[in-house]
């Protein structure tokens, strides 16, 4: 069973339960699958939970909206090839998190262990071809009825259509700022002149002449060449140097002009660019000011706090490790 299902998700469920439901002793206990996590390892993990809670509290997140929507604790439940999910396993006092893996126990094996099925849970980037859980459930019937050999051609089409369906209105404000937005590249064409700058991360860039009579009031556009996946994430470290002069100009000229950062999904490279901007230009209350005013002392804890702004504003944000490493290297290098 992947660590993501046996450890990571249970740990975070326990952390949130202790933070939001501290009076519920049962919910505050760490729950792990005994088939793969021994008593000693379970005890060692549990000793670290309070530290994780303190780390989360240090981010100073606004938890009130979460408290209103998450009315019950989280309960991890594991589903494998050899398990049976019964109604009595699910407590009505909790929200169940069903952690399903295609990995199965080794045939004839008497000791604890599973055959790991590549791609069974936590490495979707390597095999999903961009297919998200939302798109999977939306197109479930089509996918399950199609021959397996044709899926590699079908899925990119589904992903592309899904991106187009998000439309140009998919703009999200990164709070507590009032003028830094993230969206998909589809948003750029219809962005209004309230944006002083548009920074788009694109896998392919074509040189197009500007139309005659383009107004100077139109947003200034910076296209960053970022290939899909890890190569683009790594290139971001060097591309971020191109972002600074444009943002310097926008925040110095006006306190009203907005900045739009986009990428194909609005969830990866754009998150990295926005993170760099909030680290260098944003005050604690979210005002975007010139770097000469903010003069921020950067470290990993500070970057983590700024990242929490984006994650809180866009829960579906999913910046890759390579993207975050590039931003850290750019800011701290």
From TrEMBL:
Molecular function (Gene Ontology), one example: tRNA adenosine(64)-2'-O-ribosylphosphate transferase activity
InterPro entries: Rit1, Rit1_DUSP-like, Rit1_N
PANTHER family assigned to the protein according to its UniProt record, in alphabetical order: TRNA A64-2'-O-RIBOSYLPHOSPHATE TRANSFERASE
Rit1 DUSP-like domain residues: 221-331
The protein's name in its UniProt record: Rit1 N-terminal domain-containing protein
Annotated Gene Ontology cellular component terms: cytoplasm
Residue ranges occupied by any Rit1 N-terminal domain in the UniProt entry: 1-159
Transmembrane annotation, as ranges: none
GO biological process, one term: charged-tRNA amino acid modification
UniProt cross-references to Pfam families, sorted A to Z: Init_tRNA_PT, Rit1_C
Protein source organism: Elsinoe australis
């Amino acid at each position: 069973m992947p660590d993501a299902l046996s450890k990571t998700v249970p740990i975070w469920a326990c952390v949130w339960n202790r933070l939001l439901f501290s009076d519920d002793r049962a919910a505050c206990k760490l729950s792990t699958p005994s088939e793969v996590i021994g008593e000693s390892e379970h005890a060692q993990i549990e000793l670290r939970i309070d530290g994780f809670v303190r780390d989360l509290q240090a981010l100073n997140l606004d938890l009130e909206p979460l408290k209103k929507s998450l009315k019950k604790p989280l309960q991890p439940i594991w589903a494998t090839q050899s398990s049976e999910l019964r109604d009595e396993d699910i407590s009505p006092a909790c929200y169940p998190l069903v952690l399903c893996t295609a990995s199965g126990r080794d045939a004839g094996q008497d000791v604890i262990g599973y055959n790991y099925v590549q791609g069974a849970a936590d490495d979707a980037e390597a095999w999903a071809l961009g297919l998200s859980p939302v798109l999977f459930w939306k197109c479930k019937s089509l996918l399950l009825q199609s021959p397996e050999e044709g899926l590699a051609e079908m899925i990119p089409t589904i992903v592309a259509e899904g991106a187009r369906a998000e439309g140009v209105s998919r703009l999200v404000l990164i709070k507590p700022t009032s003028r830094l937005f993230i969206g998909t590249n589809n948003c750029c064409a219809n962005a209004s002149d309230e944006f002083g700058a548009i920074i788009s991360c694109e896998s392919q860039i074509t040189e197009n002449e500007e139309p005659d009579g383009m107004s100077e009031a139109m947003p200034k556009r910076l296209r960053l060449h970022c290939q899909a996946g890890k190569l683009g994430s790594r290139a971001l470290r060097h591309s971020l140097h191109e972002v600074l002069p444009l943002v310097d100009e926008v925040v110095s000229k006006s306190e009203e002009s907005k900045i739009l950062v986009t990428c194909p999904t609005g969830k990866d490279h754009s998150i990295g660019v926005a993170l760099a901007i909030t680290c260098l230009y944003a005050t604690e209350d979210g005002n975007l000011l010139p770097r000469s005013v903010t003069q921020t002392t950067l470290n990993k804890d500070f970057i983590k706090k700024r990242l929490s702004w984006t994650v809180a504003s866009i829960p579906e944000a999913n910046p890759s490790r390579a993207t975050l490493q590039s931003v850290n290297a750019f800011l701290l290098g």
